[in-house]
Amino acid sequence: MKDKILIVEDEKDTRFILEKLLSRNNYEVVTAVNGEEALEVLKTFSPKVIVADWTMPVMDGLSLCNVLKGDPKHKLTYFIILTARSSLRDRIMGLDVGADDFLVKPVENQELLARIRSGIRIYNLQNELKNIEHSKAVLEMAATIGHKINNPLSSLLLSLKNIENEILPTEKEKLQEDFSTINESIERIRKFVEELIHLKSAETEDYTSDQKMIRTN
């Protein structure tokens, strides 16, 4: 699968050149003419890297970067600013809003490709770390839930045994099927609790169209 790149550039010829360069280098490329149009594109397109001009009408590259870095869905996207500004003050301003890299126009093709490759590596590493942290949190949550269920489950089992011992044999015989069903259900819950406590990986599976559940086996 091709890595996805979004180019945000208002200058038609520059946008065309960048799109052709990246497409020839086996990237899936989508373009936008300003930050506002880019936000519409991002509703259905999830790039690993965004290359955006600083100076554009409607919404410039820095404003777009500021919006995206505050959005959990896009904050890990690697953001490269293209600019004719080369002062330290301008670079600091860009870094303060979350830009990951800068390239001064006119852009040298090989340097742009190298920066994009670097951005993709960083994006992939950040997502791997995010997945590891998520898996760790799920495992810790599963173990906590398992322990919390285990205590009342044990109390329930003891209470059920006491009830069985206290009732008359004739009544117990009438309720034997119910007792068997309850005991079987308790055993299933206990097995599930043990699987939660000793869960080794945080795999999930679809439960409904918009929900997932932990897979315990």
**Helix count?**
7
Q: For this structure, what is the CATH homologous superfamily of the largest domain?
A: Response regulator
| Largest sheet, spatial ordering of strands | 2-1-3-4-5
Total number of distinct structural domains: 2
The percentage of residues in β strands lies in 15-25%
CATH topology of the largest domain: Rossmann fold
Structural class by secondary-structure content: alpha/beta
Which CATH architecture of the largest domain is right?
Answer: 3-Layer(aba) Sandwich
| Amino- and carboxy-terminal Cα gap | 30 Å
Largest sheet: 5 strands, parallel
Task: Describe the protein.
This protein has 217 residues and is α/β, with parallel strands linked by helices. The chain folds into 2 domains: 104 residues, Rossmann fold (3-Layer(aba) Sandwich); 82 residues, no CATH class. β6 and β7 form a beta hairpin. It is rod-shaped, with a radius of gyration of 28 Å. The two termini are 30 Å apart. About 5% of the residues have low confidence. One of its GO terms (molecular function) is phosphorelay sensor kinase activity. This is histidine kinase. It catalyses: ATP + protein L-histidine = ADP + protein N-phospho-L-histidine.
